[in-house]
Design a protein that fits this description.
mainly beta, eight-stranded antiparallel beta sheet, 61 strands, 5 domains, Immunoglobulin-like, Calsyntenin-3, calcium
Length: about 950
C-alpha cells in the first residue's frame, strides 16, 4: 500500500500550481429601480446594489473591485451617473449623479451597470465582469417654483341686478414637474369686503346683485397657491365693470322670512320694489298667498279644545258634542279611528263603509225642536272630488251623509240630514215626517271638494237656514223633494257618518245604513234653541295668524287692498308704480298667539301687469319663498304655596265638609328668555323671567298609590264655583280632572275648594295626592305638586299601674309637640291630648314592653316560689296563685303621626321632668292601654 500512495501524492502536488484561481464571474440583479431628489445626488436603489462572486473567500478573485456604467436607451446615462464600490468583500455599491439633476428638464433616466471582480492579483489580471443590469432612476420634484398668473390683469363686464355663476376666470401656472407642486390648489380674493367669490378653479362670481348706480367699477386682487402652499410671485388684478341694465321684475325679494312668536306684526317685504324698465303700465295687481293648510285646520288658531274656544268666543252654552273623546260615559266614538293633529282637537276618520257613530237616545232626546245650530270641521278624504259632467242614474255616485237625525218634537217627529255630493252640500229637512213635505237646501261650494279643512256652521230656524263656511255666509237654493229618502220611521235616533235606508250598504248593530261619509270630522256639535250669532261664528273660525296691511292711511290714490276672510290671501291693486311699491312694503304677517305653532309657511307672490300695448306688456314670473315661525319660549307654570305635608286631627277629615287640600295654592306662569345685557354695561347675556297672563285649560288632582275607596273617602269640589265659571269636571276614584279655558285666578279658586273627606273611623296613617296643571291643551305642563296628608289621632294620657307611671313619665312631653311637627299646619291640641313624634312613640313602646317583661318575670318568680311552698304544705291557696301556661299579653299600641323631619330620639327624650301624666284610668282609651291578662286555675282572670 505504501508503494501505491506515494506516486499518487506526487502527481497531485505537481498539478496544483497550474490550476486557475478566478473561475467565476460576479453576479448582480438584472434590473434596479432608483429614486433621487433634485437637491441630492445619491440614488436610492431597489433592490440595493450588491455584487456577489462564487470565488469568495479567495483574495482578489472573490472580491469586487468596481462597477461600470454604460449608456442606456437615451445614450446619456453614463455621463450623469457613476457607481462606486463601498465594500470590496461584500460587493456593496452605490449609484450617484455626477452633477445636479433637474426634474423639470428630465424626470427619468435609464442606463446599464456591470460589476468587475479583482482578478487573480493586485494588478487585476484575469478579472471577470458580470452581466449588464438595467437601472431606472426617477428624479423626485422639489417645490422650487411658485405659481405665476397667465395674465397680470383680468377684465370683465356684467349687467347689473343679476347673479352670475361665472364672471371671469383667472389662471395661474407652476413650473414644477410633479403634479403635487405644479397644480394650483386654490385661489383667494385678498381684497376685503367685495361682493365676489372665487372657487378652486379660478372662476369668479358675484355674491349679490350688482348695482351700477351704487358702484360702476369693482377692482380687487386675487392670488394663487400651489399644493405645496407656495403663493404666487405676483398677484393678479381683476376689474369688473357693471353695465346698467334693466330687467322687469321684483327687486329685493327675500326668500326666507323669520318670525319670532310674540313679535306682533312684521313686514314681509320691507325692501321689495317693482322694476318695469320704464314700460308704461296702467294697472298692477299683486296677490300674496300664505299657505297654512298643514297647521292644524288651516291656520294657527287657539290651541284649546273646541269647547274651550266656544267659551272664549262667547257662544251660547248648551251645545252637545256628537263626537266626544272616547270615555266610559261617551263610548259611541270608541270604535272610530282617530288621527294625530298638530292642534288640540280630536280628529275622527270615516272610511265610507264601516265607520259610523251611533249617538245614544239619551243624548238625542235633548236635541228636539226645529231651531238648532250644527257646527263641525270637515275635510273630504283623498284628492279633489269634482262632479262628473255627464252622469246617469245608473252610475251616479250617491251622497255621503255627515249627520242623519230624527228627533221628537212634542207629539211629532222631525228629520234632517247633512250630506255632500261632489262639490255640493245639501241639507235635507223634514219638519214633520207624518204630514209636512221635505225640503232640500243645496249649496255648490268649492270648499267641499278641495281636500282642505273647512269650518261649517249651519243655523236652522225653519224655514230659514243660514250656512257659514269659514265665517262667510252662503245662500242656498231651495229644492222641494218628496222622495230623496224613504219616510223615516217615527223613532228617535241619530248617526254620524251615514244614514239609514232600504239599500243594503253595510250593517252595524241592528240598523242598515247607506251613504257612508269618506273623510275627516272634528268638533261636531249641535245646540238646540236660538241660532248662533254671526260674530260668534267668525270668532270660532278666526285665525290668529294671517296676512295684514300695515297702515291703510299710507295708501296712495287709486290703491286697493283686499284680504280674504281667512287672511291667507291679500290682493293689492293700483296704477302708480311708486304708490304700489310703498303698498307692497306695508304687507305684514301677524300672529296674535303668544305661543305660535312653529313651522314653515310657504309664501307666494303673483303679479299681473296691464300695459297700453298689450302685445309687448311685461310678464313677471311667480315668486316663491317661505315664512319660518321660530320655536316660542316655553312658559313655566309653577305651583306653590302648599307644603309637602298637611297634618290635621282625624275628626276634621270626618266632618261633613272634610279638609281643604290646597288652601294657599298659588299658580304663577312666567317666560324665561335670553336678553342681551351688553348694552347695559354687563358682560354676556342673561335669562329673564317675565310673569305673563295665561289661560289654563286643565288641572288634575290624583291620589298616589291606591285609588280612593268610595266607601271610606272622597274628594269634594265646590260645584257652584265650577258651574259658575263654565268649567267641566270629572270626579272618579282615580282622579279629579277640571277642564276648560279660564284664567289662573279662577283655577286657584276652584283648586282651593278641593276637600278631602273620610268616613267615620277610616283614618289611616297617611294619604298622598299629586296636583298638576296644563295650558294649550297639555302642550305646556306645570310642575307636579305632591302633598302628603297625615291624620293626627287623639292620644289621651295612658293608664298604667302605679309602678309604671314613673318609668314612662319621662317619655311624655306635651310641651314639645309643636316642635315635633314644625312645618305643618296644626290646630290647638286638646289639653289632655298628646302628639308624640315617631321616635318618641317607638321608644315609649319599647320601654313599656321591657317593663312589662320585667313584671312578668317577677310574677313568674313569685309563682314558682308559691308553688314550692304549696308542695310543702305550708302555702295557702288564694286568688294570687296563677297558672303561667295561660298567660296572655295583649299590646295595642297607639297609632302615631310618623314624622319625616328626622328628629333624633335622644332629643325627644330630653326635657322637663314636671310634665303632665295621666291621673285617672278614665283618661285612657281602649286603643291606648297595655293590657295584661292572667287566667287563674279556677277560671278567674285579672286585667292590669
Amino acid at each position: 500500500h505504501t508503494l501505491c500512495i506515494l506516486p499518487l501524492m506526487h502527481t497531485l502536488t505537481m498539478s496544483l500550481p497550474i490550476m486557475e484561481s478566478n473561475k467565476h464571474k460576479p453576479w448582480i440583479e438584472t434590473e434596479y429601480q432608483g429614486i433621487v431628489m433634485e437637491n441630492d445626488n445619491t440614488v436610492l436603489l431597489n433592490p440595493p446594489l450588491f455584487a456577489l462572486d462564487k470565488d469568495a473567500p479567495l483574495h482578489y478573485a472573490g472580491e469586487i473591485c468596481g462597477f461600470r456604467v454604460h449608456n442606456g436607451p437615451s445614450g446619456s446615462g453614463s455621463v450623469q451617473f457613476e457607481a462606486v464600490v463601498l465594500d470590496r468583500s461584500t460587493g456593496e455599491g452605490l449609484v450617484r449623479s455626477k452633477e445636479p439633476l433637474d426634474c423639470e428638464s428630465q424626470r427619468e433616466h435609464s442606463f446599464t451597470i456591470q460589476a468587475y471582480d479583482c482578478g487573480e492579483g493586485a494588478d487585476g489580471v484575469n478579472s471577470k465582469k458580470s452581466h449588464k443590469a438595467t437601472v431606472h432612476v426617477r428624479v423626485n420634484d422639489v417645490n422650487e417654483f411658485s405659481p405665476v398668473f397667465v395674465e397680470r390683469r383680468y377684465e370683465a363686464s356684467v349687467p347689473e341686478g343679476r347673479l352670475f355663476d361665472r364672471i371671469v376666470r383667472v389662471e395661474a401656472l407652476d413650473a414644477d414637474c410633479s403634479p403635487q407642486y405644479s397644480q394650483i390648489c386654490f385661489y383667494d380674493i385678498i381684497t376685503p369686503n367685495v361682493p365676489f367669490a372665487i372657487d378652486n378653479d379660478g372662476n369668479i362670481k358675484n355674491t349679490e346683485p350688482l348695482d351700477s348706480k351704487h358702484q360702476r367699477v369693482h377692482t380687487f386682487w386675487v392670488t394663487a397657491f400651489d399644493c405645496g402652499k407656495n403663493r404666487a410671485q405676483a398677484d393678479a388684478q381683476v376689474v369688473v365693470t357693471v353695465k346698467p341694465s334693466c330687467k322687469p321684475g321684483w327687486i329685493g325679494w327675500t326668500k326666507r322670512v323669520e318670525y319670532t312668536p310674540g313679535s306682533g306684526s312684521i313686514p314681509l317685504f320691507p325692501s321689495l320694489h317693482l322694476e318695469t324698465c320704464e314700460e308704461t303700465v296702467w294697472n298692477i295687481q299683486a296677490t300674496v298667498e300664505l299657505q297654512t293648510g298643514h297647521i292644524g285646520k288651516g291656520c294657527d288658531r287657539d290651541s284649546y279644545s273646541d269647547r274651550s274656544v266656544r267659551r272664549l268666543c262667547g257662544a251660547v252654552r248648551g251645545e252637545v258634542d256628537l263626537l266626544p273623546p272616547p270615555s266610559p260615559a261617551a263610548n259611541w266614538t270608541s270604535a272610530l279611528p282617530t288621527l294625530p293633529s298638530s292642534d288640540s282637537s280630536l280628529v275622527f276618520s270615516f272610511n265610507g263603509s264601516n265607520h259610523v257613530a251611533v249617538v245614544p237616545d239619551s243624548v238625542v232626546s235633548a236635541l228636539s225642536g226645529d231651531h238648532f245650530t250644527l257646527q263641525l270641521w270637515m275635510r273630504r278624504g283623498g284628492a279633489s272630488i269634482q262632479p262628473a259632467t255627464t252622469q246617469t242614474r245608473g252610475n251616479r255616485k250617491e251622497e255621503e251623509t255627515i249627520v242623519c237625525s230624527t228627533v221628537k218634537n212634542d207629539d211629532s217627529f222631525s228629520h234632517y240630514s247633512l250630506s255632500v255630493h261632489g262639490c255640493r252640500l245639501s241639507l235635507f229637512y223634514w219638519p214633520d215626517v207624518s204630514a209636512a213635505r221635505p225640503v232640500k237646501f243645496l249649496w255648490k261650494l268649492e270648499q267641499v271638494c278641495d281636500s282642505e279643512w273647512h269650518h261649517l256652521s249651519l243655523s236652522v230656524q225653519f224655514p230659514s237656514v243660514t250656512l257659514y263656511v269659514d265665517g262667510v255666509t252662503f245662500d242656498p237654493a231651495l229644492i222641494h223633494d218628496n222622495g230623496a229618502i224613504p219616510n223615516p220611521a217615527p223613532r228617535q235616533r241619530m248617526f254620524i257618518g251615514a244614514c239609514w235606508g232600504k239599500t243594503l250598504k253595510f250593517m252595524l248593530s241592528e240598523f242598515t245604513y247607506v251613504g257612508g261619509y269618506h273623510g275627516l270630522l272634528s268638533g261636531v256639535t249641535v245646540r238646540p234653541g236660538s241660532v248662533e250669532p254671526h260674530s260668534v261664528v267668525e270668532c270660532l273660525y278666526a285665525c290668529r295668524e294671517g296676512l295684514d296691511f300695515g297702515d291703510l292711511e299710507t295708501l296712495g290714490s287709486g290703491m286697493k287692498v283686499h284680504v280674504n276672510p281667512s287672511q291667507s290671501v291679500l290682493v293689492l291693486e293700483g296704477d302708480d308704480i311708486e304708490s304700489f311699491n310703498r303698498a307692497v312694503q306695508q304687507v305684514t304677517y301677524r300672529n296674535s298667539l303668544r305661543f305660535a305653532t312653529p313651522g314653515v309657511r310657504p309664501l307666494k307672490l303673483t303679479t299681473s301687469l296691464r300695459c297700453f300695448n298689450e302685445e309687448s306688456c311685461l310678464s313677471l314670473k311667480q315668486l316663491e319663498g317661505y315664512l319660518v315661525v321660530l320655536q316660542p319660549d316655553a312658559p313655566q307654570i309653577s305651583l306653590s304655596g302648599v307644603g309637602p305635608h298637611l297634618a290635621r286631627p282625624a275628626p276634621e277629615f270626618e266632618g261633613p265638609r272634610g279638609v281643604p287640600l290646597f288652601p294657599e295654592l298659588r299658580i304663577v306662569c312666567s317666560l324665561s328668555h335670553a336678553v342681551n345685557t351688553a348694552a347695559q354695561g354687563m358682560e354676556g347675556g342673561a335669562l329673564m323671567s317675565d310673569a305673563v297672563a295665561h289661560t289654563l285649560d286643565g288641572c288634575e288632582v290624583q291620589p298616589l298609590g291606591e285609588e280612593l275607596n268610595p266607601e271610606r273617602e272622597e274628594l269634594l269640589v265646590d260645584m257652584d264655583v265650577v258651574r259658575e265659571r263654565g268649567l267641566e269636571i270629572i270626579n272618579t276614584t282615580a282622579y279629579i280632572a277640571i277642564t276648560g279655558a279660564e284664567s289662573i285666578s279662577v283655577y286657584e279658586d276652584v283648586l282651593r275648594s278641593v276637600r278631602y273627606r273620610l268616613a267615620k273611623g277610616s283614618a289611616r296613617f297617611e294619604r298622598r295626592f299629586r296636583l298638576s296643571c296644563s295650558e294649550m291643551n297639555g302642550r305646556y305642563t306645570s310642575n307636579e305638586l305632591t302633598l302628603e296628608v297625615n291624620f293626627l289621632h287623639s292620644l289621651d294620657s295612658l293608664y298604667h299601674p302605679s309602678h309604671l307611671l314613673a318609668s314612662q313619665q319621662q317619655f311624655l312631653h306635651p310641651s314639645h309637640h309643636a316642635g315635633e311637627l314644625s312645618g305643618h299646619t296644626l290646630p290647638n291640641p286638646h289639653r289632655n291630648s298628646v302628639v308624640p313624634g315617631a321616635a318618641t312613640v317607638i321608644i315609649m313602646v319599647c320601654v313599656g314592653f321591657l317593663v312589662v317583661m320585667v313584671i312578668l318575670g317577677v310574677f313568674r318568680i313569685r309563682s314558682i316560689h308559691r308553688r314550692g311552698e304549696g308542695a310543702r304544705g305550708g302555702a295557702k291557696e288564694g286568688s294570687s296563685q296563677w297558672d303561667d301556661s295561660a298567660l296572655t299579653i295583649i299590646v295595642n299600641p297607639m297609632e302615631s303621626y310618623e314624622s319625616r323631619m328626622g328628629i333624633c330620639a335622644e332629643n325627644e327624650g330630653e326635657g322637663e321632668e314636671d310634665e303632665e301624666v295621666a291621673e285617672s284610668p278614665d283618661d285612657a282609651s281602649d286603643d291606648q292601654r297595655i293590657i295584661i291578662k292572667k287566667e287563674g286555675r279556677d277560671g278567674s282572670a285579672r286585667r292590669y
